[in-house]
Structure formats: C-alpha cells, structure tokens
Design a protein that fits this description.
457 residues, mainly beta, four-stranded parallel β-sheet, four-stranded mixed β-sheet, 4% helix, 13% strand
Length: 457
Amino acid sequence: MTGLTSVDGFENIADRKVECMNAMFLHSCGVNCETIDISKLKPNYYIDADSMFEGCKTKYINFIPFSGSEPYQLQSTYSMFKDCENLKDIFCEGGIYAQPKQNYKVDSMFENCKELTSININQIYINSTHTIKNMFKGCFNLCGVNTTTEVKNWTDISAENSVDMFEGCEKLPNYGSSIAGQRNSQYAKSDLEGGFFTKIPEHEGRAIILGNTLTFFTEQDSSITDYYKVPVNLKNEDAPWASKAETINDISYTNNFKSWFSNVQSLHAWFKNTKVTDSVVSKLVDLNTTNIKDMSSLFYGCTETHIPDFSNLQTTSLVDISYMFSNSSLGSPQGTGTAYTCNLKTNNVKYMSNVFSGCSQLLKYNNLILSENFATSNVVDMSGMFDQCNSQSYKVQFSNSFNTSNVKDFSYMFSNCSWISKSIDQVSIMDTSNAIDMSYMFSVSNIAGEFSLENAT
C-alpha cells in the first residue's frame, strides 16, 4: 500500500498494550504523503520498531513524545527509518529514546535519509554487544546529531561493528575521508567535544518582526506565544520569517540570544530578499560566528547596494557560501568608478557556486576586488560563480589568494560575462588541473584577444 497521503490518529488504541511495531509502515507511504503522525499513540513501555518506517516517502514524522511521566524505550531499531529519502524532520518531543536489547542490531537506523539536516535523540544506549553499521550512511545533508544528554558507551563498539556508520555524511563537522569507514564510533565521544554529536541547546532561539526589525530573543526574555523558532541548522529551505522578508531592513537581539547564538551552525537564507546587508554584518560581528559552517543564500536577492565589510567577521568554520549574494542589487550608480572590495575570510570554504550570479549591477558602475582574505585554495565548486554578471565597463580583480587548484566544477563560471576580456591576464593562468566539469564556462562572454588556459590538463 504505497498510496497513503497522510497517517494520523491512534488515540483510540488501548493504552500501553502495543509492544511490537516492526515494519508497521514498511513501504506504505508514497511521495504524496506529507506526514505520518503517531504522536497520540501510548505504547507499551518496551517497543520493537525494526523497519517501522522503512521505505516511506513521507516528508515529516510526528513520533511518540517521550516524557518522565510516560516513558518508553525502543528495544530494537534496525532499519527503522531506512530509505526515508524525502524525510525532512522527525518531530519527537523529548527526543528519540532507545535502549536496544543485548546483541541487537542498530544497523541502518537512519540510512539514506538524504534530506534530514539534524536528528534529535534523547538517549540511545549502546554497548559492545551492539552493531551500528551504516547507521547514518547516506545522510548527505546531515549537519549534526543532537542529544539532550551525554552519549554513552559508543566508543566501546569495535571497528568491525561500526563500519560505514557516517559514510557520506560530508556536512558533519570534522568529517574527512579517514573517518568515513572504520572506527566512526570513536567520534561519538561521551563528552560531546570533537564528535558528530552535539548538545541540544538548553533554551530556544526565537524571533519576531517589530516594525521593520527582525528581533531575536529566547524564552528567557519573553513569554510571547506568536514567534518564529530560530533554526540551528537550516538547509535547503527558506528561513521561517521568509514570507515577511521584504519588510525587514534591520536586526536586533537580546543578551540571552547573543549567548544562545553559539549553537547556530547555519545562516542559510536568513536574510534572503530582505533590505539588509551592511547593517546586519556589523551586528553579526558582535556575535560568536565561529561555529557557522553555512552562509549560502545569506543575502540572496537583497536590495542593499554595496558589499558589507566582513573583515572582522569570524569565519573559521565556514564551508559553504553558494548563492550568498546571488540576484542581489549589489552595485550602485552612486559613487561610480569606485571599487567594491569583498574581504570575506574564506580560507576553509569549499563551495562557492553562484556566489555572485545574477548580480547584474555589480560591475555596471564599479570594479570588484576580491581581497587576500577571499582565499580559494580549498574550493571544489565555482560553478556559476559570476554567471550573468554582465558588464563592458568594469571588471573583477583577483588577488594572489585566488587559487583554483582544487576546483572540480567550473561550469558556467564566467557565462554571460562581457568583462572577462578585461581580466584575461588573470583568468588565463587559473589552475584547472583538477577540473571535471567546464561546460558553458565562458558561454556568451564575447572574449576578445588571445586567450588560453595555460595550466589546464
């Protein structure tokens, strides 16, 4: 039965009777199913849940809430959420709580949950008798596994029984090829430091729009009930306040939020289509941004007319700035002939796809200087970086930090860029030795004069 469009209810099932939910929804929900809601179910204290949702294409699962007054524990979770490829979030008040039976498999519990960006667990008690192979394998967008308490005994699992635990989870902090396979469990430290598990913030970040100001606070500051919940790891979605973005021209925050902000790992699309850039950056500098890994689409479509000063912004963890300024109104006839300088520190950035794409005014009135701070030695994707930045009057000036030796994708990088002939001396010496995709790299760019890529192989 793959045609279910929603699943809810369960309040009439006898309390504390159900103890086996193995394969309960196995391959039962197709792509049209938005939500599976079993939050009203009150099961037995001990539950078997092998393959419970395996193969479901639903976007959201409202799971049984966990609380001290009505506790329960999952005794078996083998392939519980495996192949839930469209699953964006698992809502579970109190977090998922599991204490598998001795010698049981926890293998593939979240395998191939490709759209999940974070997973909240209360506790999953693991010991040396369990196997956790492929547990998070193929969770390509996973930025963190959050827990309300300490992770227990994960380091006791042998390399053989934890193989490929985090295989393919490249967006996790500190991920590298050396930890993709064996001994993945050694990164699940009980002290939560340096591992893939992070502590769920004690408080909740919230936001409201007051006038034209996006105001951030925590529940410590106000008991107001109509607010936006501030995401910690936003990815591939717009910010909760996106529908009001065009009214926002400033931000403010409380001291409690300032302390809470260190939990945030992604600023993806936070200020998309707003009227802010420079004013926001000056206030972000006062926050702890050292844990921010993702600034993709941060200022997408913004109507501010100049590039903000990023020189004091901490970006040591920053990995992704794709679409950061895309389709924004950078560039202004006021001050014609002056140079814009982008001094964002990008030493560890890997993804710059379309970072300036669609900025049609960017080079219409001014040159763009990419400063020494704008380092690119770790970048692998520059696709569409300047696509549609068309100008015949001004150009981009690259510093010595513009290193393309690791870039694999150059597709559309200078497409529709008439200014390219003015920077031909710098573009010609770009290192393309690791290039895989160069499709449409200079399409419709009207290159004039002699041109070659000397370091292409």
